[in-house]
Fold this protein.
Amino acid sequence: MTALADPSAEGRFGEFGGQFVPETLVPACQELERAFHEAWNDPDFRNELGRLQREYAGRPSILTECHNLGRQLGIRLILKREDLNHTGSHKINNVLGQALLAKRMGKKRFIAETGAGQHGVASATAAALLGLQCKVYMGAVDVERQALNVFRMRLLGAEVEAAQSGSRTLKDAVNEAMRDWVASVEHSYYCIGSVMGPHPYPFIVRQFQSVIGEEARVQVRELTGADPDVVTACVGGGSNAMGIFSGFVDTRARLVGVEPAGGAAVGRGVPGVVHGMKSYLMQDEEGQVQEAHSISAGLDYPGVGPEHSYLASIGRAEYPSVTDEEVIAGFHYLCRTEGIIPALECAHVVAWISREAPNMQGATVLMNLSGRGDKDVAQMMQILGPTLGEANV
Amino acid sequence: MIPLEVHLRARRDGGRKILVPYITGGVEHWQDAVRAAVANGADAIEIGIPFSDPVMDGPVIQRASREALLRGATLHLILDGVRSLDVGVPLVVMCYYNTVFRAGHERFARMLSSAGVSGAIVPDLPLEESAEWCVTADAADVATVMLAAPTAPDERLPRIAARSRGFVYAVGLLGVTGERETLSASATAIAGRVKGVTDLPVLVGVGISDARQAGQACAVADGVIQGASVMRRLLDEGVESVGNYVAQVREAIDE
């Protein structure tokens, strides 16, 4: 079980969180909270979820120790391999839970937003498996840069709608999904893909992702005989980070969430309210939400889950950021040294570890490799060039 | 500022249905549109403060918000514009909560009252989150208009009405702002339910799309709010069209 605290009755982690939604959605959020608690305490639900995690998603995910990279950097680097899950990322953990919950609540239609497409693909997958009608909102910019994932969702039977408003990325996909939900709340279930949104979503998604940290805690102890010194993951909304942090928040491990420089909600934001939650937010003096700019669609988000804001505010976790250039180098580095192509989101973590290594000599660093890079290969081919420069021809 | 509840009650109790057009502050000719609406029979005006992420709004008001922001609209500039309006009916702002939160509750309430604004509608601040703002607003004589949605269970409505000031905003349908072909049955249903629990004026908004629908809604409600239908005309056709439309709606609800 996770050592993270439950939110308050008002859905707050410290001052963060809450339920800032239109009146229309309040009863649905309250119903969801009741349904989740019932399900989470029902052994049948947990057994069914556990069965799907094992037999469908491929859990538990393994650990891989990066001997080459670790030697070069002077650290002991261990990856939690969420990239090996069915659908290629940690998103399936949350989606299987929420899809089972939707069925249990008698909802026939499953709405999701997606950035890079990982949550959209996972949602389309779970909907296909469990017989739910699925609609995915994706920013028009992301539809273009993640065309392969769009086609995957369509193959799986989901309807994908390009969000044309605002910055046409993840933020706007969330807006469109919420607008759909306001209109369809009686028969639709909104499956939020990260530890964000109005209460109870940040809590629900964290609980469904806590399996990452629970497994990793046991696995790292088996491998090294101790808890890691550093636990790190990338942070957009922050679900993969919250998943792995949940296993170590009560240890002495340094918890590090790595943000993109162009979407550093904790690093550069101030508290604000959007998408149903109070949390750190990139915004101007007037409270207009600023557009994030990141090489990775999955982290292109100006906000962050409220529990991350809380962990930052009490000093339990830290949130450095890395630039797109560092990310590209990190991406390439993991490919070459370990034979693992990471999602661009996770390349942020490799970039931070590489930069920080001189200050972590001899430390055991556990990194959540939350997704695989197949979806990013076309984009990286454009950036790096198909021959990767003459030396590699 | 004109006290919102006193003003609206007086009109209602005088046998008049209440018409509240919505105008997004900061779009081209927005102040002229406010004047045209008042000249043609508006009883109060709702002024939208544009926000980057308007989740309760459909395409027309999203477009209006975007255009206003692109033209450099800010809270200060809009309130300066409001201050100079002097149209003789109450003005109520509609803004998303981050605008309030970012300014700070007390400062925001002061800004509104010093600009002569009578009330505020904050569509993403539901009952459970509203206490702190409402206390501050009450102290500044700014009426916080609460929304009542069709999804609200019966026990919730009296609590919403008790918290609401000025009037209660009954949400006409499940969905975001925008025009629809026909009036949703939920519009009169929610108006009737809210009227059953309060003596405050009850106005229906969201999805009241033309003069005929406004007339139908007013069979039960004390009045209507007209948003997307007004803003589409302002953006596409101009101020005169807004005036003509408000006059049409006035006539329909006066019948």
About this structure: The mean pLDDT of chain A is 95. The CA atoms of residues 110 and 137 of chain A lie 11 Å apart. DSSP finds 15 helices and 15 strands in chain A.
